[in-house]
Amino acid sequence: NRVMRWNKQNVINLVSKSNHLPAPLNPPAPEIYRLPHPPPQLPKISIPPTLTLTPSPRHSNFVNFLENNLPHHQTLSPQSLIGFLRSKLRHHPLFAHYDFAVFNWAATLDTFRHDHESFLWMSRSLAATHRFDDLYRLLSFVAANPCPCSSGIFSCPHLEPIFRSAVDAYCRAGKMDYALLVFDTMKRLIDGKPNVGFYNTVMNGYVKSGDMDKALRFYKRMGKERAKPDVCTFNILINGYCRSSKFDMALDLFREMKKKGCEPNVVSFNTLIRGFLGKGKIEEGVKMAYEMVELGCRFSEATCEILVDGLCREGRVDDASGLVIDLSRKKVLPAGFDCGGLVEKLCGENKADRGMEMVEELWKNGQTPCLIACTTLVEGLRKSGSREKASGFMEKMMNEGMLPDSVTFNLLLRDLCDSGRSIDANRLRILASRKGFEPDETTYYVLVSGFTKEGRRKEGEVLVNEMLDNDMLPDIFTYNRLMDGLSRAAAGNFPKKQVRLL
């Protein structure tokens, strides 16, 4: 008989102690490792009443699950425990939230000892699922139970990632008291100074929670602790000043950044530009963009989108297109910038000609606009009555290998036919077919109707026969009707206004 690796009554007690997870182990800790007191108040977990001593089906299922999947306790190692938690328990629909209970149970075994890998796994799991109280208990346990790889007076070199994931989770949740408490605890446990990224995480948490004063105090603390700020440190504080509309302070910090030998990056500029434009300070934002160019800092797609969106929100679409043209001429416009939104705004304000000027400038400078921008421009030119320009631009698109959608293409052909240019419309169809465009029934009906209006029987009959060859005619009566219309129109037997699309 196989000896059960789990005592059933112990498991029942394990899963019954709280609504979600049993209280973790709390062994006495050496004084040097204890967390600061008093710690933040943890909410009390009510213990549901036990109405019966008979194991419930869920408890029995949990026992069976552990018996069938968890390695024997005498051979259990941190790696095999992590494997069980990751592959067996993590995605289980009923038992996933008992991972911390299993983690705590393993710590009670005489033959088992957690290491930094199991600590890190559990820390990230609790942080990802927002179990902040249990995360705090875990870190208390880590502080009281050094990793096996720590030797003598030296701490485990992997402690910092364990605490950093927790600090990041607390900051994201706005629990800054916990974040600072965990940071201070980690700082005492590790050898040397924390990585500057650790300081940045806490500082960014203060900024996002709207507490700029505490963020600045933490920044000053960095200096006292001889932690050298990096570009991310300054970007976080600049963002905080911009969020609180203190642009003068943001610029002062920007200059201080340079004096301290920390070169601003694209995020630094984007943060300032977004802040200026968000508060309607258009000139300051654009000036900052040109300073960015002068310093040789690479423009990003985000930079261009911030500038264009900010100008358009103020109703300055002409200035936005002018800025894009200028940046393109200076060869600093990112290749991935999508001008489709700006083209749409220009066409919406009946400024399709300006949109065409911008798009052609991009093309001229070796930056191919996207298909959506081009089809939007064709539609804008068509609606503004610039059929000649729309046709020419469509031809250029197709010569560049950009095929339009059938709706845009057919509408342009209809406009050309309505203006007596059916020959030009058919020439566009032939070009499109050569480039891979597949005309549909509407394409042919539009052209046949145009040829009928112009009395061009020969050209129309060629298209009708193509329709017949391509199975685009529903029956022979439709074929005869189209041919008859072309014949009568060529003979002038009925007014052109009677000709209509079939």
TrEMBL record:
InterPro entries: PPR-containing_protein (IPR050667), PPR_rpt (IPR002885), TPR-like_helical_dom_sf (IPR011990). Pfam families: PPR, PPR_2. PPR repeats lie at residues 195-229, 230-264, 265-299, 300-334, 370-404, 405-439, 440-474. Keywords: Repeat. It comes from the Eukaryota. Belongs to the PPR family. P subfamily. This is Pentatricopeptide repeat-containing protein.
